[in-house]
Structure formats: C-alpha cells, structure tokens
Amino acid sequence: VVLLTQSRKRVLSMIAERPGVTMSQIAREFGWHVSAIDYHLHVLRQAGFVVRRRGHCAAYALYLNGQAPA
After folding, report:
1. Which 3 state secondary structure label does DSSP give 2?
2. Measured CA angle at 51 (ends 48, 53), to 5 deg
3. Nearest CA-CA partner of 4 in 44, 32, 37
C-alpha cells in the first residue's frame, strides 16, 4: 500500500492535468530536484498509479481502471 503524501498527490494532479508530462517538466514546475520527482514517480509506478511511456523522453500518464490511456 502506497502512502499518498501531499507531494505524491501534487505529482498525480499534474500528470492528470498534463498527460505525457516528463519528470524534468514536473521538477521545473514544482521547483524540486529531479531525483525527488524520480523517487515519487517510482513509488507511484510500483503502486500502479502511473505508467511510464518511452520516446525521446520518458513521459507519464495516469493508470486508471486497469488501463493506461491511449
């Protein structure tokens, strides 16, 4: 069970508002170090809340109802 801290809720909210957002974009927007965002995204991925899409940069999207968005 993942503890949804305020930080993780903020990250999830941003991903919900901007599917495809990258870790660097989240860090820049929040004024956090990329390693902090990486940690929170890792926890959220392991818990099944977000998926990581690969391309030029890894982008993130919410994982809802057992499916990642198209």
Report:
1. coil
2. 165
3. 44
The Cα–Cα gap between 5 and 7 comes to: 5
Reduce the DSSP state of residue 51 to 3 states and report it. Answer: strand
61 Rama class: left (phi>0) / alpha (psi -120 to 50) / beta: beta
Dig out the tokens for 56 from the structure: 């030029």
Residue 14 burial by CB count (10 A; 0-12/13-18/19+): exposed, middle or buried?
middle
Confidence of residue 33 (pLDDT cuts 50, 70, 90): very high
Summary count for the chain: helices (H), strands (E): 3, 3
- CA-CA distance, 57 to 3, in Å (whole number)? 27
pTM over 0.70: yes
